[in-house]
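Collaboration report, partner site 2.

Our partner group contributed sequences for two proteins of shared interest, and the home lab folded both. The records are reproduced in the order in which they were received, starting with the first partner submission.
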Amino acid sequence: MNTTTITGRLTADPELRFTPSGTAVATLRVANNDRDDHPVFVTVTAFDKLAQVVADHMVKGRRLAITGRLHFEQWETDGQKRSKLTVIAHQVDFLDAPPAEGNRQADSGDAPVTVHAEEEPF
């Protein structure tokens, strides 16, 4: 079974783009700390409605938990082999309270919201 959960804060606003066929794709960078308190940065990709919801409701600094699957890519550039490990999101939990009206920054307090690939959060 290929399942992982990542919890942390967004290091930047989500980057939303669309494929030529119109599929939404959001790229997220999430930071957390390992057990030795060293920062760990994880790249997460969300697709379709989940990508749009995350891009609409999340900004740099917001806390979230992502459940998904690991995705390993390999390619060669200028004769050098390269690879990366990312997470393909299936579910995103917004761990901060929704921002106040007209303010995209998180309010204080916890009000978790879970978003699955096929759902709207609010």
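Second partner submission, folded after the first:
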Amino acid sequence: MNNEEKVLFKGSSSPRALALTFASLGLVELVIVALAFVLTPWVLVLLLVPAGLAGWFLLLLKSRVYEVTTQRIRVSTGLVTRRTDELELYRVKDMTLVEPPLQRIFKLGNIVVQTSDTTNPTLVLEAIENPTALRESLRVAIEECRARNRVRLTELE
């Protein structure tokens, strides 16, 4: 058997997940521009606030990186201090694909992974592009990982 670890997916949540947030901040900017015409041009300085918020939300989104391999899932988070959590695939008990309406419009979805890991019993890969294909690849990798490690899940009722 081949024990070489291969990367199935590496990336962040899609920025399209923030579409509603960006649209709202755009409306705030339009209001600020309208106020500048009515009041004083100095009001335009306030445009920095929604622009800064949009940049901050995007930076937070991109600071969380998912790496799904044939043996584990890694989630790295943090801007200044980086934290990486790992989950061995043989610990996965169940997966669910959740596609909220706004994400479905942009062909995105969340993969919710239920595990037997005590520190991370539920892991969510948020706003992933082409989530159905990743979930299927992950399902195959989980079965191969269980077979390789001779692990079987038992369900107690």
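Feedback sent to the partner group on the second submission included the following. The chain has two domains: 19-58, 67-149. The domain at 67-149 is CATH 2.30.29.30 (PH-domain like).
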